[in-house]
Every structure is written in structure tokens, then in C-alpha cells.
Automatic annotation (TrEMBL):
Region Disordered: start-end pairs: 1-25, 82-103
Basic and acidic residues: compositionally biased ranges: 1-14, 82-91
GO CC annotation, single: cytoplasm
Record key words, sorted: Coiled coil
An annotated GO BP: toll-like receptor 2 signaling pathway
Compositionally biased residues, Polar residues: 92-103
UniProt name for this protein: TNIP2 protein
């Protein structure tokens, strides 16, 4: 290993000697090339940082939206349960058919809304997982 490291050291010293022995214009060209490479890497890093911040912001926004959607689903589920309990309590008393139809329509629309919110919730979870 020591011999291998010594050989690598000699190779690096040879490269340094070549650089020293190069004419000044080639040294300048090498310096300009290295500066250009550094500038490109700095631009790439800046772009990366901006994208990372953007994704982080979007992730937080999606998490907040997911939380509010979940909260809304829970609220709607509670409302639906209360209406079902009331409906069961009133089933002993014959409800007029018009009121019964209205309750069924409300229940159907609530169930459709819950399904839509659950689908949106699932999509948001997928987006958050993807991000």
C-alpha cells in the first residue's frame, strides 16, 4: 500500500511539474477552464437549492391540504352518523315520504361528497409520497 501511495504521489508530482513547465498561456487557459467548471457547478448547486426549496414548500402545502381534507372527511362522517341516528330514531314515527326522499337525497349527496374527498385524500397522499 505504501508503494502504491508513493507511486500515486510521484504521478501527482509529475503532473504538477508538467503544469509548472507549461507556458504561461496554457496555465491561464487551465485556470479559465477550472473557473468555468466551478461557475457551472455553482449554478447547478443554486438551481438544485431552489428546486429543493420549492419541493419542500409544495410538500408542506400538500400536507396541510391533506390534513384539512382529512378533517373535513371526519366532520362529514360525524354529520352522516348523526343523521343516520336521527333517521333511526324517527323511523318508528312514520316520516312523510317527501321528507324521507329529501333525507335520502341528502344522505346520497353526503356519501358522494365523502367518496370524492376520500379520492382526493388518496391522491394527495400519493403526491406527498411521490414528493
Amino acid at each position: 500500500e505504501v508503494q502504491k501511495l508513493n507511486q500515486q504521489l510521484e504521478e501527482k508530482n509529475g503532473e504538477i511539474q508538467q503544469m509548472i513547465n507549461q507556458p504561461p498561456y496554457e496555465k491561464e487557459r487551465e485556470i479559465l477552464r477550472l473557473q468555468k467548471t466551478l461557475a457551472e457547478k455553482e449554478r447547478a448547486q443554486a438551481t438544485s437549492d431552489v428546486l429543493c426549496r420549492s419541493l419542500t414548500d409544495e410538500t408542506h402545502q400538500l400536507q396541510r391540504k391533506l390534513a384539512s381534507t382529512a378533517e373535513m372527511c371526519q366532520h362529514l362522517a360525524k354529520c352522516l352518523e348523526e343523521k343516520q341516528r336521527k333517521e333511526k330514531g324517527n323511523s318508528d314515527d312514520q316520516i312523510p315520504t317527501e321528507r324521507s326522499n329529501q333525507l335520502l337525497d341528502n344522505e346520497t349527496s353526503l356519501q358522494a361528497l365523502i367518496c370524492n374527498l376520500q379520492d382526493e385524500n388518496r391522491m394527495l397522499k400519493q403526491k406527498v409520497a411521490h414528493v
